[in-house]
Every structure is written in C-alpha cells, then in structure tokens.
Write a structure and sequence with these properties.
The protein has 315 residues and is an alpha/beta fold. It has helices spanning 53-61, 83-86, 104-113, 121-127, 143-155, 173-188, 200-206, 224-228, 246-250, 278-290, 305-314; strands at residues 6-17, 27-38, 41-46, 68-73, 89-92, 161-165, 192-196, 209-214, 217-222, 234-239, 256-258, 269-275, 298-301. It is 31% helix and 26% strand.
Length: 315
C-alpha cells in the first residue's frame, strides 16, 4: 500500500490547562492549531518563547491529550496508539534526557537492541563524528557531544518520523554542519522531520516548510520562498557606525535585527524588514535623523525568514 505523504497532521488542536474553579481559571495554550508535515521533508516549527511549540509537539507525539481537535501521526492517533507507533517515531528532546553514568557506546548499543532493524551503529557514529567520545561517560561529555548522542539515540531505530527539538543548540559551527548533513540525508531517505529551532538562518537553510506559531495559533505557514517573497517588500541593510541603544531601537519605525546574529557594536549590519515603498524609506530616514545616525552603507536584500519572524513577533 503506498504511504500517505503526510506523516503528521494537527487539525484545530486545542489544549487547555487549569479548571474553571481554580483561581487562574482555564488557560488555553493551543487555540486551534493546524499543522502538517510530509514525509521526505523538513518541517520547521518556529515561534517566540511561550508560543506553544513544546505543547504542540507534545500533542503531536501523544504525550499530551488535546482538549479538542484531531492529531494523526503516521496515520494513527498518537494519544491512543501503542508501542507499535512509538517504534516508528524518533524523538530528540532539548535536554536529551540521557542517563549520566553510561557511556554512549553502551547506551546506543542498548537502544539498538530494542529495535528489530536498527541503524548500524558505526555508520551513525561516523556520520555524527562521535568516535572520539563513545567511551566517555555522558556526565563528562560537552553539551554539543551530548546533543549528538541524543540525536543518535532518536535515530537508531530507523524511525519514519522524527521530532528534533533544537538539534543544533549549543553546537560549534563544525558540529552544526555535521547535524545539517545528517538531517539532509534523513530527508533524502524519505523521513518526515519536524524540527524546532531558534536559529532562523538554520531554519531558512533546512526547511521545506515552515509554520510560525504565536499565542497558540499558527499565524503563518508555507515554504521559505512563499513566506519571504511577498512580491513587494524587501529588507534594507545599513551599517551603523555606533552601538544603538534600546530606546533608539524601540523608536525605530520597523523591527530592526542584527544581520547574521552579530553583536550590537560599531560597524554592525542592521536589517530593517518590510520595506515596501518610498513611505517606508521616508520613515526610516526620519528615524535616523531623530537619533542622529548617519549609516555607513545602505543596501537592499530579499527578505529572510528572520524578517518574517520579527514581523509576526511584533504584530
Ligand atoms: N501545564 C501547564 N500549566 C500552565 N501553563 C502552561 C503549562 N504548559 C505550558 N504552559 C504555558 O503555556 C505557554 C506555552 O508553553 P510552551 O512551552 O508550549 O511554549 P514554547 O513555544 O515551547 O516556548 P519556548 O520557546 O520558551 O520553549 C507558556 O506560557 C507556558 O508557561
């Protein structure tokens, strides 16, 4: 039977905590979330802190029971499904949840034995560049090394769908590249990958599809191209000769972000999103006049996911 291209769908999922009788009453954390992920694609879930990402993923994985709506993971309701579904799904949590006193080699061999057809351990070790620390207890590993062990543990059962919560958090650029390559390899093998990240450049590079969650609802979704190319607005980059103060940034006519995650220092490149006409340029130059700033260089670029994220965050 051909596999359904969707590996995950959430339809109008609501999730509430508390009770009408408690002092704080009922709090709706998810307010009708629609979310889909396909096999052979990387689907990125973005959102500001507290948007409901972890809660949505908890519902998607069957850890939390939605108060309303439907969830389908690999064709089953994850809340009711048994071990059969869990064996087909890999989950990498942000904190890893790894036992501290075990060596990665022992741990991963143990997890591999729980699965009928595990991924050959040596291949995973090579792909994640882990051979240097397979014999070191988890307690002594660096944060980045633990991340890679947790990722390996989530993949060793050859899952059909995998949830990766900030897989590259705390990784150095080389290890991050290693993880990127593995995620790309998994996608090419047809896995459905659902990933959360706060690194918007990473999301832009990896995502086939993006959902942006805010206040418990998906406010934007689409491919990176669909989200960033609205046919009219662009981002304006300017080089600031000095550090910009919080008050100056708050007075800006459009959200300002540091290009490429640089520091707010003299010579930093700032990006102003959503510039769609002379009126926006006028507001920007007016702001420069107000704060007495003469930018070093000014140029236009296509919008990025970061611009879209900022627009959503402040709207
Ligand atoms: N069981 C609970 N009881 C009360 N409030 C909760 C509960 N679970 C989550 N929340 C609240 O719901 C909101 C969404 O939480 P959630 O962890 O899903 O957000 P998030 O998008 O994953 O945030 P972050 O990026 O900070 O990890 C937060 O304000 C959180 O405090």
């Amino acid at each position: 039977m051909p596999q359904h291209p969707l590996c995950l769908s959430l339809r109008q999922v609501r999730y509430a905590v508390g009770s009408a009788r408690s002092a704080t009453g009922v709090q709706e954390i998810l307010r009708g979330v629609d979310f889909t992920a396909r096999r052979g694609e990387v689907t990125v879930l973005l959102g500001p802190n507290g948007a409901g990402k972890t809660t949505a993923l908890g519902c998607a994985q069957g850890l939390l029971r939605p108060s309303q709506g439907t969830v389908s993971l690999l064709g089953e309701d994850p809340w009711r499904a048994g071990a059969g579904l869990r064996a087909r799904v890999g989950v990498m949590l942000q904190d890893g949840g790894l036992p501290q006193s075990v060596r990665p080699k022992v741990l991963l061999e143990h997890v591999a034995r729980l699965h009928a057809d595990p991924w050959p351990l040596q291949d995973l070790v090579d792909r994640l560049d882990m051979s240097g620390f397979m014999g070191t207890t988890v307690r002594r590993l660096s944060g980045g090394q633990r991340q890679r062990v947790a990722l390996a543990a989530s993949l060793i059962g050859r899952p059909e769908a995998v949830f990766l919560d900030e897989p590259s958090a705390g990784l150095d650029p080389q290890s991050r590249q290693t993880v990127f390559e593995l995620v790309t390899h998994l996608r090419d093998r047809g896995l459905g990958i659902v990933l959360t990240t706060h690194l918007l450049e990473e999301a832009q590079r990896l995502a086939d599809s993006v959902h942006i969650l805010k206040d418990g609802v998906v406010v934007r979704h689409g491919t990176v191209a669909e989200l960033t190319d609205d046919g009219r607005s662009r981002r304006l980059i300017f080089v600031s000769p000095r550090t910009l103060t919080r008050a100056e940034l708050e007075a800006a006519p459009t959200p300002m972000s540091l290009d490429g995650g640089a520091d707010n220092e003299p010579g930093a490149r700032w990006a102003a999103g959503g510039i769609s006409g002379p009126q926006d340029l006028h507001r920007l130059t007016d702001w420069w006049r107000q704060i007495d700033l003469m930018p070093g260089e000014v140029s236009f670029e296509a919008r990025t996911l970061e611009d879209v994220f900022w627009e959503v965050s402040v709207s």
